[in-house]
Design a protein that fits this description.
homodimer; two-stranded antiparallel ribbon; 8-stranded mixed beta sheet; NADP oxidoreductase (chains A, B); 226 residues; 11 strands
Chain lengths: 226, 226
């Protein structure tokens, strides 16, 4: 498949790398190609600038948000939560009728650590995106765990932990679940329509505290049931 | 120990029953003893009125909120989230220096199902209670799963799932963890101070959706880590 990923940060790069390994044609989308290539600064987490990373990932194409949204069969939202709705709204026509895999979380770091959610409880980023792009099939998933685990769940407990999936379109969820299975996911819980994205985004506060308590981001939730 | 439980609903009754089984002297607290005894209606979930339940639990004493708070060594908050802060604020002097085990969740059913949280993200019910009762050692726990599982975790996967505990006082958390262990808990994760209660209360939205998706409330979160 031709898969587009909006956002050139670590989450986007990690999915791009994995999807390319799995044989897909992968495009990474950015606002301004030249600016992304010219950046020489590490990000806030100490990850290398795009150009340095890209040297080892020449099979992945860098393109504009618009070209990625236009050309890809399926598009991932790996944007920062704070800009996701505004960037995606500009791509409304390109994304119409397509599946958008929304990995973003509405984290607000403006008041320091730990971040707050900029939307929650009675609304969610997933719902805001679905509302802004009514003709797009928004599927919220992958947003409840570390990006390395998102694309390679078997590195933890033989993948015996859970991925949540939310969205209004059953076929779209099934297609995204196939991608997740190709990553190695065995346990995928369909929570229901896109309003259930509230629940997954609201996992972030405990996720962040668990990172502190466990001293590692390499953990995940497993739902134990009868 | 002499343990007091504020709230005569199912959560309070379930803890009271279990604590009495474990040999504690248990008091259940209510606003108005006569009204609680005289009530003949089932609750919204179809549970029997207090008097009917109490016939089989004569070892548990019914008393006023104030008498329970005054006499007990340790007090459980099993009140409805919407009244918890106002009821507890009236018991400030009785609860001073005591441990308060806060099981309540700030659920708002005023707009139907699923309920919203009346406080979240930048604050929590646990923090509001700690702020209202600065001399009380508030320990938030048990609020992230079904009440029957709270008091008997071994009925699910030999108790191989997790209980979260939050609070500012390490000794108080250790004492409450001892009670949890006497219930059968093996995995107890200390998330940190009372601000981490935000994370556990914000689990409620996904908990409610999982109940819908799994068709049973008898499940719990397990944190899978390296």
């Amino acid at each position: 498949m031709k898969i587009g990923i909006l956002g050139t940060g670590m989450v986007g790069r990690i999915h791009a790398t994995r999807l390319a390994e799995l044989g897909h044609t992968v495009m990474l989308g950015t606002q301004d190609i030249e600016k992304t290539r010219a950046n020489i600064k590490k990000d806030a987490m100490g990850n290398p600038p795009f150009a340095e990373w890209h040297k080892d990932h020449q099979d992945i194409t860098l393109a504009t948000f618009r070209d990625v949204a236009k050309d890809a069969d399926i598009v991932f939202d790996a944007l920062k939560g704070e800009v996701a709705v505004s960037v995606l709204s500009m791509l409304k026509s390109e994304l119409a009728s397509k599946i958008l895999v929304d990995i973003a979380n509405p984290l607000d770091f403006s008041q320091g650590m730990p971040p707050f959610l900029s939307v929650c409880n009675t609304d969610s980023l997933g719902e805001q995106i679905q509302k802004a792009l009514p003709d797009t099939k928004v599927v919220k998933t992958f947003n409840t765990l570390n990006a390395y685990l998102q694309v390679n769940p078997a590195q933890l407990a033989k993948a015996d932990h859970d991925l949540f999936i939310c969205g209004n379109d059953a076929d779209a969820k099934a297609k995204v679940a196939e991608i997740a299975k190709s990553y190695g996911w065995k346990n995928i819980i369909d929570l229901g329509d896109i309003t259930t994205a509230r629940g997954t985004e609201m996992l972030l506060p405990i996720w962040l505290r668990l990172w502190g308590a466990l001293k590692t981001p390499l953990f995940n939730f497993k739902i134990v049931k009868e």
